[in-house]
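Batch manifest, entry 17 of 40.
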Amino acid sequence: MNLHVLKPKPLVGRDGKPLINPAVIEHERERRHSVENRIADRITAFSGSMLFVYIHIAWFSLWIGLGVESYPYGLLTMIVSLEAIFLSTFVMISQNRADAKREVLSNQQWGMVQEEDGQNVELLRISNEILALTKAVHEATALHGNGAAAPSIDASTQRDTTSS
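Output type: structure tokens
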């Protein structure tokens, strides 16, 4: 008997490609815990497809062509109006979802910017220290090259030779 370890399916975006951003992956995992979110996602995905359009073309054509009701099609109008109300709600849910995802991404990017800013400040501090040391070495070698005694860079390492 061959036992397969069930691997969780990778989370995919609307384009069907696997998600790679860790912040978005975590956001999707949290979102999928809610049954309402999963239902809204499926309805929104279906209602935004061409299959949805083709079904409606066929439905309206058959309704009118078979003479289910006479003109001005009051029942059809009411059904379509109710459908539009619900679909607009699902569109708003989808927009809220997209806004939440954009917020997750912007928060992650802002955190990265803050981290990079801290790194830049540290690099500037180190660069200024290197510049100061380079100037000190240059001054020491310039004085030594002119025949003058090279000054000590660190006064704490000098020994007082006059007291011995």
